[in-house]
From TrEMBL:
Membrane topology type: Multi-pass membrane protein
Pathway annotation: Phospholipid metabolism; CDP-diacylglycerol biosynthesis; CDP-diacylglycerol from sn-glycerol 3-phosphate: step 3/3; Lipid metabolism
Record-listed E.C. numbers: 2.7.7.41
Name of this protein: Phosphatidate cytidylyltransferase
Family as reported in the entry's similarity comment: Belongs to the CDS family.
Transmembrane portions of the chain: 21-51, 71-91, 98-117, 137-159, 166-184, 216-232
Length: 233
């Protein structure tokens, strides 16, 4: 038993090193692309989109029961991923686009960190254990608090519009964004459960696939586009 425990601890330490190294590389590559902007960022975003669509199609192929269903899944993935990534590319072209893109990514990262910290600290009832056993209501509250802080201290000063004023509006925006990001996470978890896999792929050492890393970001961007269009229709 002691040997098994020691092996398990060694494996965890080894996995932690791989995860850390992969995270550094991902942050460096994404950060450089965001900083350079233009064609470099567009090419980077397109590469990520194609990678996610490849993983989406692999999962859908295990979920769909017919050729028609597979086509519908593929079309849905193209719309979902395409709209979200196009929104990110468009944001980079705005005035202070580098800060906008960085802020959106920081927002979703804060949601993940807040959810993880609160969930591990307080535990408590699960939201949907049959889909994602690790997600708790405490984690969702932590995610909402983290998102609200980003709205108040980062996004509000950066995006000074009449839609981003007032503490109540900013907190509501943070809560809504946290819920949307978590729904995106649950949706990908549901796809993986239906497909019978742990990760969307093994593309990123120690982290699984691209879809695993950007599930919440895709949901936030996609819903953001839909809401934005709905306000002007």
């Amino acid at each position: 038993m002691n040997d098994d425990a020691a092996k398990a601890r060694t494996a965890k330490k080894s996995d932690l090193g791989v995860r850390a190294a992969s995270a550094v590389v991902m942050i460096a590559v994404a950060g450089l692309a965001i900083w350079l902007g233009g064609l470099v960022f567009t090419a980077f975003a397109a590469a990520v989109a194609l990678g996610v669509l490849w993983e989406w199609n692999r999962l859908a192929g295990k979920i769909a029961q017919s050729g028609v269903a597979r086509v519908l899944w593929l079309l849905g993935g193209i719309v979902y991923v395409g709209v979200a990534v196009a929104a990110l590319v468009l944001l980079r072209e705005f005035d202070r686009g580098m800060l906008l893109v960085g802020s959106v990514i920081a927002l979703v990262a804060a949601i993940d960190i807040g959810a993880y910290a609160a969930g591990r600290t307080f535990g408590g009832p699960k939201i949907a254990p049959s889909i994602s056993p690790s997600k708790t209501w405490a984690g969702l509250i932590g995610a909402a608090i983290a998102a609200s802080l980003v709205f108040i201290f980062i996004l509000a000063p950066l995006v000074d519009t009449r839609f981003m004023r007032g503490l109540g509006v900013l907190v509501a925006g943070g809560i809504a964004t946290a819920v949307i990001a978590q729904v995106g996470d649950f949706f990908e978890s549901w796809m993986k459960r239906r497909a019978g896999v742990k990760d969307s792929s093994q593309l990123i050492p120690g982290h699984g696939g691209l879809f695993d890393r950007v599930d919440g970001l895709l949901a936030v961007l996609f819903v953001g586009v839909v809401v934005h269009l709905g306000m002007f229709l």
